[in-house]
Amino acid sequence: MVRKFNELNQLNEAAAELFIQTASDAIARQGHFTVALTGGSSPLGLYQLLATPPYRERVQWKQVYVFWGDERWVPLDDERSNARMAFETLLEHVPVPEEQIFPMWAEGISPDEFAREYEQSLRLHLHPDGRFDLILLGMGGDGHTASWFPHTAVLHERNKWVVGYYLEPQEMHRITLTVPVINRARHIAVIAYGQNKADALYEVLEGQRNVEQYPAQLISPTDGQVVWFVDDAAAAKI
Ligand SMILES: O=C(O)[C@H](O)[C@@H](O)[C@H](O)[C@H](O)COP(=O)(O)O
């Protein structure tokens, strides 16, 4: 489903409502809520909203387990860190117990080993069905999402839950959830706004199937729901 908004604050409010609803449904059903956060700049307004009354009081933060959909393999204090951004805008302002927050970063371990360990944590915390309650995603102007970049091998990974790999053009490693894990989620929310997303949004939602070029076409939940939160500028061509 595509939800289109004139104003960015309306988009963020609607995304916050989805977050609150999926959290309260999950907590009522199973006692806790598992969410994967996204990086980039797109979720900034949503995180700020969730950290502020009256939204903040509507989530039972002590029952929330926080993971990430993808990360740049940099220390937590690096300005490129997706986790750092989420801590500053959201996690430092809400009472999620520290041991329930799982940044995609650790010292003294390779990205590959880390990916295996992260998969083990997911297997433990997403037990028994391996499903996230909610995964937040953004989309780049080139049609990538999470760290599924065009023409990378991770697009074809069907067994591993988490992959760490070197992304040549950015000269850094990336850690990312894989296609099967993301598509197993109960809910996926993709946030894409601004004119520079218009071409990719058109190609991803209405263009010919070409997942190598537009990896966000791979977002296709098997038994869940996806909502695209877009603004008029991003939606100019759809
Ligand atoms: O670490 C990252 O870069 C991401 O998680 C990535 O997939 C992001 O969501 C898109 O690149 C959109 O980025 P913007 O929100 O900054 O446009």
Automatic annotation (TrEMBL):
<comment type="function">
    <text>Hydrolysis of 6-phosphogluconolactone to 6-phosphogluconate.</text>
</comment>
<dbReference type="GO" id="GO:0017057">
    <property type="term" value="F:6-phosphogluconolactonase activity"/>
</dbReference>
<comment type="pathway">
    <text>Carbohydrate degradation; pentose phosphate pathway; D-ribulose 5-phosphate from D-glucose 6-phosphate (oxidative stage): step 2/3.</text>
</comment>
<dbReference type="Pfam" id="PF01182">
    <property type="entry name" value="Glucosamine_iso"/>
</dbReference>
<comment type="similarity">
    <text>Belongs to the glucosamine/galactosamine-6-phosphate isomerase family. 6-phosphogluconolactonase subfamily.</text>
</comment>
<dbReference type="InterPro" id="IPR006148">
    <property type="entry name" value="Glc/Gal-6P_isomerase"/>
</dbReference>
<protein>
    <recommendedName>
        <fullName>6-phosphogluconolactonase</fullName>
        <ecNumber>3.1.1.31</ecNumber>
    </recommendedName>
</protein>
<feature type="domain" description="Glucosamine/galactosamine-6-phosphate isomerase">
    <location>
        <begin position="9"/>
        <end position="228"/>
    </location>
</feature>
<dbReference type="InterPro" id="IPR039104">
    <property type="entry name" value="6PGL"/>
</dbReference>
<dbReference type="InterPro" id="IPR037171">
    <property type="entry name" value="NagB/RpiA_transferase-like"/>
</dbReference>
<dbReference type="InterPro" id="IPR005900">
    <property type="entry name" value="6-phosphogluconolactonase_DevB"/>
</dbReference>
<keyword id="KW-0378">Hydrolase</keyword>
